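We now fix the convention by which a protein and its fold are recorded. Here is one such record, which you should read through line by line:

>
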Amino acid sequence: MIASLRGTVTSVELHGAVIECAGVGYFFRATPATLGTLRRGEEATVMTTLAVKEDTMVLYGFADAASREMFGVLQSVSGLGPRLALAAESVLSPVELAQAIAGGDTKALQRIPGVGKRMAERMVVELKDKVAQFSGQAPGDAEGLDLPLPSTAGAHGAQVVEALMGLGFPEKQAQTAVDRVLEQQPDMGTAEALRAALVSLGKK
């Protein structure tokens, strides 16, 4: 298992980044909060975990150990895979997830795209005793973090749509959500736009 990467950041996109280690570039998927800490051309270290299926291997990166641990804890829920776990951490920080689960706040959990009432209730029941370790961690937040992307609404809007498609949303649904978000706040940053779009999609 690839537990971490340390090297030069060669590419940063809304749904992932590439870090070059010993001449090999490793692409990993990550949340806006994690991607917002990376700068192209600078050295960085990310915690990672490799999700292996029959036909694919996907590397996921995290800014800290708590986020990686929560990613694994979330997947212990029946029917909750790595893509949904990443979506959960794109909307709520590990601390916010722990608080929602420990407090039985299913409405907060339903803000996560792909999580309905039954899945939210299942998360509370199956994870309530597993999230206490995250209660003392400082919460992370994607707000205020902006990725090195074009500043025009049209340009970064397309990037946000691409990121949502990478999380499994149909292009039309993703485009509608992004258009709605940017219409309301056209000056919104890229990371903020992605988070707002995820919240909007989670309400459906």
Summary: Residues 181 and 197 are 6 Å apart (CA to CA).
